[in-house]
C-alpha cells in the first residue's frame, strides 16, 4: 500500500511546472508525507520485533508511540518537543535511546518534523543521523535531505543528493521523482547538459514509470537552452 502511494500521489506534472521552485513546492509535502508513512511502517515493525525481545527497545518503542500520534495529527511541535503529560518528544527520545532502532527512527521523525516546520537546517542535521540500508526508507530520507538543501538554496548539494537518492532507490516509484527534481535544479543553475542527462535516465532507465510519459518535454526544453 505504501508503494502504491508513492506511485500515484505525484502524477500531475503539467506545463505550469516550468521552474525548479514550482516543482519543489508542489512535491515537497508529498515527499515528506511519503517518507513519514514509510517511517511509520518500519517503526511499527521494529517496535513489535524489539518489544518482545529487548527491554531497552521496548521502552524506546513505547516512548515513540505518543509521538507517532502527534505526528499523524500533524502536531509537529508537540511530536518534536513533547507535551506536559509525560511524552518526552522525538528529540529527547533520539538522545536518550541513542544506539537503538527506535532511537534511530526518532532521528528520522525529528528531521521530518523540522522539515515540516520549515527548519531545514535542523532537519538535515537529524535526517543525517538516521542510519538505514533498506531500499525504501533510506533513499526516501536521502531524497528529503536533498529537498531540504533545495529549500535552503544549496542547489549543488540538493542536486547531488537527489541523484544519489534516485540511484539508491532504483525504483519506479521514487527514482523518477528525484531525477526530475535534480534536473529542474540543474536547469535553474544553467547546467542544461546535466539536466538532460537526469531526464534521460528517467526516459531510459525508468521508461515504465508514470513520469516517463511526460519526460520528453523536459528533455526538449533543457536541450534547447
UniProtKB/TrEMBL annotation:
The chain crosses the membrane at residues 30-48. InterPro entries: TPR-like_helical_dom_sf, TPR_rpt. Gene3D superfamilies: Tetratricopeptide repeat domain (1.25.40.10). Signal peptide: none annotated. The keyword Membrane applies. Coiled coil: none annotated. Keywords: Membrane, Transmembrane, Transmembrane helix. SUPFAM superfamilies: TPR-like (SSF48452). The keyword Transport does not apply. This is Uncharacterized protein.
Amino acid at each position: 500500500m505504501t508503494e502504491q502511494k508513492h506511485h500515484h500521489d505525484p502524477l500531475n506534472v503539467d506545463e505550469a511546472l516550468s521552474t525548479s521552485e514550482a516543482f519543489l513546492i508542489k512535491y515537497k509535502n508529498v515527499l515528506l508525507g511519503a517518507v513519514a508513512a514509510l517511517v511509520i511502517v518500519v517503526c511499527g515493525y521494529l517496535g513489535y520485533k524489539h518489544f518482545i525481545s529487548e527491554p531497552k527497545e521496548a521502552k524506546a518503542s513505547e516512548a515513540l508511540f505518543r509521538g507517532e500520534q502527534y505526528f499523524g495529527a500533524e502536531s509537529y511541535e508537540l511530536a518534536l518537543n513533547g507535551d506536559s503529560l509525560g511524552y518526552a518528544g522525538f528529540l529527547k527520545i533520539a538522545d536518550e535511546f541513542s544506539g537503538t532502532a527506535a532511537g534511530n527512527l526518532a532521528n528520522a521523525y525529528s528531521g521530518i518534523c523540522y522539515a515540516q516546520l520549515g527548519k531545514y537546517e535542523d532537519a538535515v542535521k537529524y535526517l543525517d543521523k538516521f542510519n538505514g540500508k533498506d531500499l525504501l526508507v533510506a533513499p526516501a530520507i536521502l531524497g528529503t535531505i536533498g529537498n531540504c538543501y533545495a529549500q535552503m538554496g544549496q542547489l549543488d548539494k540538493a542536486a547531488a543528493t537527489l541523484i544519489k537518492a534516485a540511484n539508491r532507490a532504483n525504483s519506479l516509484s521514487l527514482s523518477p521523482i528525484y531525477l526530475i527534481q535534480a534536473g529542474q535544479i540543474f536547469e535553474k543553475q544553467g547546467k542544461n547538459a546535466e539536466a538532460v542527462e537526469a531526464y534521460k535516465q528517467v526516459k531510459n532507465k525508468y521508461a515504465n514509470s508514470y513520469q516517463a510519459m511526460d519526460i520528453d518535454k523536459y528533455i526538449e526544453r533543457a536541450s534547447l537552452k
